[in-house]
Amino acid sequence: MITLALSKGRIFDETLPLLEAAGVSVDAVQADSRRLIVPTADPEVRLIIVRASDVPTYVRYGAADLGVAGRDVLLESGVEGLYQPIDLGIARCRLCVAVRQDFDYAQAIRRGARMRVATKYVECARQHFAAKGMHVDLIKLYGSMELAPLVSLADAIVDVVSSGGTLRANRLVEVEEILSISARLIVNQASLKTQPRRIGALLDAVARAVSAQQAAERSAHPSPK
Ligand code: ADP
Ligand code: MG
Q1: In terms of pTM, does the model score above 0.85?
Q2: Residue 181 CA: which ligand 1 atom is closest?
Q3: 93-181 adopts what CATH topology?
Q4: Coil, strand or helix: which one is 141?
Q5: 117 in ligand 1 pocket by Cβ < 6 Å?
Q6: What sign does the dihedral 14-88-181-62 (CA atoms) show?
């Protein structure tokens, strides 16, 4: 049996079509159920549903052979013991610094003000500000980061953004991009050694599905010459 760990939401919704193209389809009723272990059309492959930030943990301990996790989550949690063979190119977003529209970030930097920054991504934020030589106080949050500058918990946030709609709705503006993010397939290194053929075949099928999806996207939205 091969176990693949996924989080509900964007990653689940965008991984299912790739799995389907790789011959591992999931019944819509099963996908919508509250079950945490979801069978697939392949009796040798099952999905487990976990929190996004827990995916690397399940894979690192071998409770799942494979998982799908955002680059943000992988950078925060570390990748020891994990093999990262495929960038799935899904759940694309970027990690950025955002502030209130009326906050002058550039001036605060020039003054050398010690800013308070609220984020779920403490590791990524620490590295980013250290590289800029900025001293900041990091405040760890677990969600709704956009609220922090509005109620003066923080001057800035570090959060993932895709369309920017949530920032706009809360009168925040993006002032720096830290990294671009997409979801990666991760594999437990021991699983790959014990089940090389089965996992290798699944990785090949997923890699082909990703290439086909990206080719279809390119032909739907050709880049301007
Ligand atoms: P959670 O809120 O539990 O962290 P999400 O489903 O919001 O779970 O995010 C899971 C992953 O999807 C993130 O780690 C990130 O890689 C990606 N992601 C998060 N927000 C967005 C977004 N707005 N657009 C695209 N991808 C996103
Ligand atoms: Mg979220």
Answers
A1: yes
A2: 16
A3: D-Maltodextrin-Binding Protein; domain 2 (3.40.190)
A4: coil
A5: no
A6: positive
74 lines ligand 1 (CB under 6 A): no
Burial class (CB in 10 A: 0-12, 13-18, 19+), 183: buried
Task: Provide the strand spans (E) within 20-102.
Answer: 37-39, 45-49, 66-70, 82-100
The yes/no answer on whether domain 2-91+182-220 falls in CATH 3.40.190.10 is yes
Give the distance (Å) from ligand 2 centre to CA of residue 144: 8
Q: How confident is the model over 142-199, as pLDDT tens digits?
A: 999 999 999 999 999 999 999 999 999 999 999 999 999 999 999 999 999 999 999 9
Does residue 93's CB lie within 6 angstroms of at least one atom of ligand 1? yes
Pick the ligand that lies closest to the CA of residue 11: 1
- The ranges assigned to domains in the chain are 2-91+182-220, 93-181
